[in-house]
Amino acid sequence: MVIELLDLLVVGVIGGFALFLFSATRVRELAISAVKRAARDGDFQLLDDSVSLQRMSLSRDNKGMWRVWRQYRFDYSYDGVQREQGAVIMLGKSLQALVVAEPDRLLH
User: Fold this and answer.
1) Exposure pattern of 15-45 as b/e (b: 16+ CB <10 Å)?
2) Is the pLDDT of residue 103 over 90?
3) Smallest Cα–Cα separation from 46: which of 105, 104, 106, 98?
4) What's the CA gap between 105 and 108, in Å, rounded?
5) Residue closest to 87 by CA, chosen among 69, 74, 68, 105
6) Where does the pLDDT of residue 62 fall: very low under 50, low under 70, confident under 90, or very high at 90 and above?
């Protein structure tokens, strides 16, 4: 059996894509756990227990290495009634920022 160069190229592309999907799943799990920690500390509720990919690009980290930059969107609530949108930004596997609005505290 002879393996041609095109066969190796196809297997390499498919393998690279599978590795990228596995890595993307892991980064998404890290983003969800970061939002859950922030929800526990910030006294808000993560709705639907999920984040959704909003933007993705390439960016350099502080060491100058290229990493995949991802911005995820999530829904949260302080009171269980009003739904707000927040964002979590990941660079590679590291958390860069988590953005939520301050709650409107009304005193009656």
Assistant:
1) eeeeeeeeeeeebbebbbebbeebbeeeebe
2) no
3) 98
4) 10
5) 74
6) very high
